[in-house]
Protein 1
Amino acid sequence: MKQIAFLINPHKKEELASYVSWVLKQCAAHQITVFDREWPFALEGFEEVWVMGGDGTFNYFVNRYPTCSLPIGLFKGGTGNDFYWKLFGDCSREAHLASILAGVRGRFDAGQVNEMLFLNGVGIGIEGEVLRSMEAIRYIKGGLGYYLAAIPALFRFKHYRISGLPVFLCMVFNSSRAGGGFHFFPMASIEDGELDMMVCEPLPVWKRLFYMPIIQSGKHVGLPFLRFSRISQQTISCDRLLRAQVDGEVLESNTFEFRVLPAKFDFIKSI
């Protein structure tokens, strides 16, 4: 009988209650301790940890337990579920649970920006403004909610400068997508020991709107106003204080120091 800590996003415990009950019923052979109010100070005494929530919950987990060496099983329960998708794709609940119970694992990279860990990625500038707008429409899940939040930001956001060069957007990612299905880095791997970086030059509003669905589909990689590179470490200095979104959480700074953390966490993945 395996000793498992099951950590639930406390802000969504009522919304996720039926899903949690279903999981527990299917996994009666294991000793599962549910934490849906306060998470434990440490994970000692457990052989495995399961986490239910969205990208923000998973971000909270890796920052609360940055030295976790246990196998980690992620359960979808958020707005975007983008890192979950990288591990499991668009599978059914039943297929996902079968993968969790099979316990096929991999050592996957994480990233760090300043003192904060991340699994998906970081968007500096307009991404932080989009995140602020999304707080008002969290009940609209996935790409639609991202669209509704992004369109006003596309109109009003002004470019900034990195090392003297004007840019509209700078993103550094470990994984492939954010915003509930925007494939910003379709080529990204979470096992290559590198982070992917994209810089976008300033664009008129009509281009911002026109290319938004193209970026969502991941067909933007060859566009002439975008520059892609791979990094293991990078410092980005901006000409003003900016909001960045970090796996759906906000970080404010004018300097962002990035580094990759190769094979940082032991995640259970799809069979």
Protein 2
Amino acid sequence: MRPALQTPAFATADDWADRAVQALRDEALLTPKPALVDGRGSGAHRDLDLARMLRSAEALRLPFADMARAAAGARPSPDLRARLAAIGRVAEQRMMMATDGSNAHRGAIWALGLLVAAGSMRLDGGGPEQLAATAAAIARHPDRHAPGLDSHGARVCRRFGLGGARAEACAGFPHAVRLGLPALRRARAQGHGECHARLDALLAIMARLPDTCLLHRGGLAALRAAQHGARAVLDAGGAATARGWEELMRLDAELLGRNASPGGSADLLAVTLFLDGIARQDGGADGEIGRARWKH
């Protein structure tokens, strides 16, 4: 039986924002992640490091709370979608100021912003799937005031015929709900530590996601290398096993060599951790779960 989603009467906009920021912190601190910013360094990113990621997460606290307030008592609608989008654009500005102009969390602002809004609505209970479905109902409305930005992600989506982050949200975040969460819970049930469980959740997402960050940086070759490498770790028993750890380090080196980072998968890991934290009513603890053993 899946844990029920709790939306207690005392949950405030600040509570929802705290949970979103904690998910971003937990994702950033998780170490070692293949070619991503973590406690070891910048991965394949020249303009980001852990300090910037954490500053960005903190800078998003107020916009997330504003999104929760905007959605409280509301229903999915074009007007709500427009209000959230306007707050999201402010959030991006705050992110850029916190990181000296680097994109640390644009995809996560979109995903977690929708989920914070969905949680604040306090609709009919359910589990993470219901929360994701409510977020999807918001995402399906168009943003009437969206600027015509030609982002890296948009160009990749056009080139490869992908739906990207918007399609993922409109579908209810299936890579988080159907892949990330089950992998996380399965690893815990097998007695693996929290850090290894979270790494397995990331790898389960990477193994299937058509990650537009990988496609932008390294094309189809990088995406296939990432998916193949992630499956190899999981097939070896996951990050907690000696052979799985070797495969993880091999994947890290492969993606670093290609200067390709699975940023879309990292965003969906943050979504997974947010949904898991809501279901467990436990946002995690930075110091205890940030790092796995770097040697087996």
Protein 3
Amino acid sequence: MKIKTAAEEDFFIEEIEKIARSAGQIVMAHYARGAAHEFKSERQVVTGADGKSEQLLKERLLKIHPCGFYGEEEGGDIAEQGDQWVVDPLDGTENVSGYPPLLAVSIGLLRDGKPVLGVIYDPVHSTLYSAQEGGRTRVNAELVETGNQTDPSKAVVGLDFSSDMGTRARTLEQLSRVLELARAVKVFGVPSLSLGAVATGRLDLFFRPSTKITDMVAGVCIVRASGGRVADYDGRDWTIHSEGVIAGSSWMINAYLPCFK
């Protein structure tokens, strides 16, 4: 599908935003009653909202743009050719019956393996992030951009741990080095919203050891469209094959990169 005009581009992303809001209604219905969860692996939980939200996303996204589809619950293979929707129907599942009150629906579009569109919806706070490659990031229709902080000692840094226990010792070592530089460190438990916070300048940097693809595609597009950069732990531009992620301004990434070696 080729979007040829600005009007068509606007209509396309507006339709995706509507779909994100509809999925958010499913999430909020479960959140309001404190949905019970089950363990889908040793340390990963899932709720009824995850499956219902993903079903809605798949049906409606494929209706407006038939192509490949990869969901957090359904899984599959990531395509390096052509278009593919990549979605997390409920990012922050641990928070549904816990704290903090942060949840998100994340919708990304890969084109030949590259993030070209992202929509993230925070239904708790009715906050909608959206961007397309070549455009600019908007939050609730207002243009935003990454922060301009250049002093590492004044930076607010976001972190999310992986459920993979094999990454945690290294992450703690990295965190200890980050804490020697940063003003503060925040843990949201919702990687897509952490990337959204980088795009709006509320976080100066965000890092995570394993980049679960469904958490990343939309947020990577949104950060880049806001003027930020997304890299791996070696400082190379993030790709779908990267195993670590650092997001922020180029200046801030360069300042903190030694912490991740």
